[in-house]
Amino acid sequence: MLNDQAAGLRAMHANKTQSRDSTPQPVRVIAVASGKGGVGKTNVSVNLGISLAQQGNRVLLMDADMGLANVDIMLGLQTKYNLSHVLDGEKTLQEVIVEGPGGLKIIPAASGVRRMAQLSAMENAGIINAFSELNGELDILIVDTAAGIADSVISFCRAAQEVVVVVTDEPASITDAYALVKVLSRDYQLSKFRLLANMSRTPAHGQQLYEKFARVCEQFLDVSIDYLGTVPFDHDLREAVQKQIPVTVYRPNSLAAKSFKGMAKKIETWPIPRGVTGYLQFFVENLFQSGH
Ligand SMILES: Nc1ncnc2c1ncn2[C@@H]1O[C@H](COP(=O)(O)OP(=O)(O)O)[C@@H](O)[C@H]1O
Ligand SMILES: [Mg+2]
Q: From which residue to which does any coiled coil extend (predicted)?
């Protein structure tokens, strides 16, 4: 199977070098974070990833959450290897990447993610090298982070160009999201965030939640919060989770799926990262040298 996959990736590369310039292209790196767990980060990461892939982007989803509801479970995928095997030198990055629905590529979660910030210089160089193999293979990297303000979450958000904060209309979700934005802005000088209001009752409810959150953040912190959009509370999404099929595939016409597609279109209009920060290497180097 791994051989098949390697062959597939080689074929993909061959196609691409015919049609695209082989010099590294800017990659959008989007971290999906929340503060509180269970608010929908993994569903957001997976379904935005699939929608962006369906729109013709080459998307890689990195599962950086070691919690229970992992990306591979949500997609019903059997995964054997992950980033820790790359760190140990047992596998190449391309060998641990699995393919999900709609051509979405996935790096499964690793307990190794926790220790990534404490890599030796050798491991560090190795992983940067491993990611550089992906240069020119990728348009968008989405990182599904863990709940809370763990060091790894901070590292991923700092290294990404875009941080999508997922909130629901509950006090704990809002205060935890605020705490995350506060730490990232006060201690790490991040100043721009995107908000996604999940499980809203109506589009207006989602918009109100955004306005409430943005007002408080912008009043007390030196940040700007943009509205990415809202996903309604949707029973089709719950059913899709049960079936281990992403809602954008299971019920493409559901309200939730439609809102993910709308947001994916919006993401495509975000400015393309320019300068060094636009390259994958910048993300990886930043990630492993962020002092955590
Ligand atoms: N828009 C939604 N509508 C209904 N239920 C949702 C929605 N988004 C998430 N959920 C429910 O919340 C649960 C947790 O979602 P998940 O994406 O795993 O959150 P997180 O990754 O933040 O922990 C899902 O299993 C699903 O049942
Ligand atoms: Mg999750």
A: none
